[in-house]
Amino acid sequence: MARLTYAQKLAFSQTVAQFVRDSATELKDSGFDPEKKLTELEEVLKSAVELDTQQEALKAKLVESTDKAVKALDTTYLQASSLIDAMVGVLGKDTPLAKRLRQLRTQMVTEASRGKRLKPVKNNRV
Questions:
Q1: Angle at the Cα of 107 from the Cα atoms of 106 and 108, rounded to 5 degrees
Q2: CA–CA distance from 103 to each of 47, 80, 82, 98 (Å)?
Q3: For residue 88, which of 77, 102, 78 has the smallest C-alpha distance?
Q4: 64: buried, middle or exposed (CB in 10 Å: 19+, 13-18, 0-12)?
Q5: What is the 3-state secondary structure (H, E, C) of the chain?
Q6: Are 17 and 38 in contact (CB under 8 A)?
Q7: What is the pLDDT of residues 47-105, one digit of tens each?
Q8: CA-CA distance, 16 to 9, in Å (whole number)?
Q9: Residues with Cβ < 8 Å from 113, sequence gap 6 or more?
Q10: Side-chain half-sphere of 39: how many Cα atoms within 13 Å?
Q11: CA nearest 104: which of 70, 73, 77?
């Protein structure tokens, strides 16, 4: 297949089916009976359209699910962060445990604080 887009392939198939329908008499008169092939084409075309509709619905559902997951995670992070603030408030901000709790948040925000990173391997080109 040429480098056609999904829409181009669908439009081409629909155009061919319509052409065969419109030219059925002329094709039969020339010795080609298009009925069986047209029926087959229309069946696979119908299937392709139905599957595309299902796929588009799934894409929409994925977008919606992703949005819900991101919002839930944001809420979770805010709750965890608030819990740190509450514990630091009870412990006193200068206690060792409170300092460690505040460090947890800093480690997540500051990439360099997250731990050791492996150095990328350089290509040895000759």
A1: 90
A2: 57, 13, 14, 8
A3: 102
A4: exposed
A5: CCCCCHHHHHHHHHHHHHHHHHCHHHHHHCCCCCHHHHHHHHHHHHHHHHHHHHHHHHHHHHHHHHHHHHHHHHHHHHHHHHHHHHHHHHHCCCCHHHHHHHHHHHHHHCHHHHCCCCCCCCCCCC
A6: yes
A7: 999 999 999 999 999 999 999 999 999 999 999 999 999 999 999 989 999 999 988 88
A8: 11
A9: 106, 107
A10: 3
A11: 77
* Beta-carbon-side half-sphere exposure of residue 46 (alpha carbons within 13 Å): 6
- Count of residues for the chain? 126
- Indicate the pTM of the whole model: 0.60
